[in-house]
Amino acid sequence: MNPQLKAEFGRGLLAAWLTAKGDPRGALLVSGSFSECKRSFFAALVALPGMLALVSFKLGGQEEIDTIGYLVVEMISYVMGWAAFPLVAFGVSRQIGRFQYWARYVTAYNWASVIILAVTIPVTLLVNAPGISGGLGGTIGIMTLVIIIGYEWRLARLVLMASPMQAGFLTALDLLLSFAIDSMSQQLARGGGFIG
Q: Are 19 and 154 in contact (CB under 8 A)?
């Protein structure tokens, strides 16, 4: 990792962490330049082992599955997820008059995704652990989702400088987009015969 990217990696994670705590200083740690925004997609590589861990966990619960085919579908879904929301945020930020903050927002959002995944993995393991009832697992899952939604809302407020309603709209779009991509990947996996 080159020194510049290494420094941006540290600042990006710190910015995401401070924003999660509601500290507006987090937004100031990323420059908002387009070049730094492009480099922040390195976060997708940082998060990739976590995503593969979640996929392997899903595979463990399937008896008959084409592992390679399913992994290809999940990788396509992963790339789409990292590319789609910044494009949506591009359009929304222009519509609400916050385009000057778009690159900074996407940079912080990309690094925040690493933190979100770091939270999602242990929660997924806990919810699916032997001895955890379906009701308790469902409650933990919903609570985690609410926390993540709140985090993304705060990110839009502090970094994109969006109003509460605009931040809510953008967060809802991100949630719907994630559900749509996940649904599409599951349909592709079933259609391709990768899972039963």
A: yes
Structural contact between residues 13 and 115, judged by C-beta atoms closer than 8 angstroms: yes
Q: Is residue 196 part of a domain?
A: no
123-151 pLDDT, tens digit per residue, is: 888 877 777 777 787 888 899 999 999 99
Answer yes or no: is 43 within a domain.
Answer: yes
d(C-alpha 137, C-alpha 78), whole Å: 25
* SS3 at position 65: strand
Structure tokens at 59: 């595979």
| Per-residue 3-state assignment (H helix, E strand, C coil) for 71-109 | HHHHHHHHHHHHHHHHHHHHHHHHHCCCHHHHHHHHHHH
Asked whether the beta carbons of 13 and 29 are under 8 A apart, the reply is no
Q: Give the structural domain span for 183.
A: 3-191
* 100 found inside a domain: yes
Q: What confidence score (pLDDT) does residue 121 get? A: 87
pTM for this one?
A: 0.89
Residue 122 included in any domain: yes
Residue 124 CB contacts under 8 Å (≥ 6 apart), including other chains: 54, 57
**9-38 pLDDT, tens digit each:** 888 888 888 988 888 888 888 888 999 999
